[in-house]
Amino acid sequence: MNKSGKQILDKVYYLIITSLSLVAALAWNSAFQNFFEKNKYLNRGPWIYAVLITGIVIGLIIGFTKIVEKIEGEEKEIK
Asked: What is the pLDDT along the chain (79 residues), one digit of tens a residue?
């Protein structure tokens, strides 16, 4: 496969994975919303959930960014 074909395949793969992740996230979001609406003792639950998820996502983004930068740095050293 030539370079442009691989780039297209990589982009399609990325878009499919991103789309499926969004679908899963929306499904979980609906499940948690339903849980908090039906449980009268968790009136602050959605806020705690939102802060917790935001912290996890930020941590994952930072971690993945460091991994990608390390891999790109190693590839530049090889070339």
From this structure: 677 877 888 898 889 999 999 999 999 888 888 888 888 777 777 788 888 888 999 999 999 899 988 887 876 777 6
- Integer Cα distance of 62 and 3 in angstroms: 29
Whether the pTM exceeds 0.70: the reply is no
| Cβ contact 3:9 at 8 Å | no
Residue-range domain boundaries for the chain: 1-42, 44-79
Q: Burial-class residue 53 by CB neighbours within 10 Å (0-12, 13-18, 19+).
A: middle
